[in-house]
């Protein structure tokens, strides 16, 4: 498994100056100045052009090699690798690709992956959520609803952002899946500066999806354990044969199901003063925007197929 910045000896974290060189090299590769399969200029020429020491330049080149953007062959020069080889989940590579790579497809693919992972985390949370996490989730969804615009209230964008952040964090914690959480936090899509109207539209989209996730968790816990993950489903399938032999214990199993149902009922939305949407719509989930490199202009980023509005979770 590839882990960014890791080799057998040490973890490499480029310095701030090296990161600036990395960004500039990536932009020039994306602009076509340095083509895949072609060689970069000699180190001395690049160091002079970027006005950095050769130590800083080598640090940047080494980092780009570890991000699978470059291939360094000692004594034979440095070659640009095909874009398909790049580690696009590296935060720096991803942000540059999204803002300057001109690919709407990548943004859409990230859109789809984040949505699928949030749905998976909701299914896992339905099985694993703890009482204190459920309390936090209830509180977050109530705060999100309270910040939504209405006929008599213009809406609270900043309050909504904070509540949505707490909702997303609690969902991730309740899923007890660190891999899903880390991937969701890694794949961030930059968004251009938004007007108030854009922010309010994003709130509506976010709320639709948050309500869907919340309903998924609540209904799952009311069923006594939520919707099974693929692994749990596979384990259950493997044990179906032995389970079918236990028909004699149906009475005790029914009693257990009844007690589970009663416990879940005490945590139902009505019991805590909450409501579920009657027709929750699927809505893509996007992350918080990233900051652009200083001194650069943003290019419009398409955030999803047929969608001009981002989500705030």
From TrEMBL:
Residues 225-313 are annotated as: Disordered. The keyword Transcription applies. Residues 236-266, 274-293 have a biased composition (Low complexity). Residues 15-83 form the HTH gntR-type domain. The keyword Ribonucleoprotein does not apply. Keywords: DNA-binding, Transcription, Transcription regulation. One of its GO terms (molecular function) is DNA binding. Gene3D superfamilies: GntR ligand-binding domain-like, Winged helix-like DNA-binding domain superfamily/Winged helix DNA-binding domain. InterPro entries: GntR_C, TF_FadR/GntR_C, Tscrpt_reg_HTH_GntR, WH-like_DNA-bd_sf, WH_DNA-bd_sf. This is GntR family transcriptional regulator. It comes from Actinocrinis puniceicyclus.
């Amino acid at each position: 498994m590839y882990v960014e910045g890791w080799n057998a000896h040490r973890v490499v974290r480029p310095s701030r100056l090296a990161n600036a060189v990395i960004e500039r090299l990536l932009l020039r590769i994306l602009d076509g100045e340095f083509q895949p399969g072609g060689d970069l200029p000699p180190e001395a020429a690049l160091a002079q052009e970027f006005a950095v020491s050769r130590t800083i330049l080598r640090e940047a080149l080494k980092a780009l090699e570890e991000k699978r953007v470059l291939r360094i062959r000692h004594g034979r020069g440095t070659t640009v690798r095909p874009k398909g080889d790049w580690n696009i989940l590296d935060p720096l590579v991803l942000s540059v690709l999204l803002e300057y790579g001109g690919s709407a497809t990548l943004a859409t693919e990230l859109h789809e992956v984040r949505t699928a992972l949030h749905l998976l985390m909701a299914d896992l949370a339905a099985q694993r959520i703890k009482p204190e996490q459920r309390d936090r989730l209830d509180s977050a969804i109530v705060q999100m609803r309270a910040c939504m615009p209405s006929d008599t209230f213009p809406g609270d964008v900043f309050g909504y952002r904070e509540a949505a952040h707490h909702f997303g964090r609690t969902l991730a914690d309740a899923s007890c899946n660190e891999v899903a959480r880390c991937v969701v936090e890694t794949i961030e899509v930059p968004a251009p500066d938004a007007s108030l109207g854009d922010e309010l539209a994003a709130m509506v989209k976010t709320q639709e999806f948050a309500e869907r996730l919340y309903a998924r968790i609540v209904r799952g816990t009311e069923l006594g354990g939520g919707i099974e993950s693929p692994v749990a489903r596979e384990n259950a399938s493997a044990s179906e044969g032995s389970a079918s032999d236990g028909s004699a214990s149906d009475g005790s199993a029914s009693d257990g199901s009844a007690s589970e149902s009663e416990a879940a009922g005490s945590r139902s939305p009505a019991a805590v003063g909450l409501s579920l949407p009657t027709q929750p719509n699927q809505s893509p989930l996007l992350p918080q925007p990233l900051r652009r490199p200083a001194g650069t202009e943003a290019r419009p980023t398409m955030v999803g197929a047929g969608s001009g509005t981002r989500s705030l979770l």
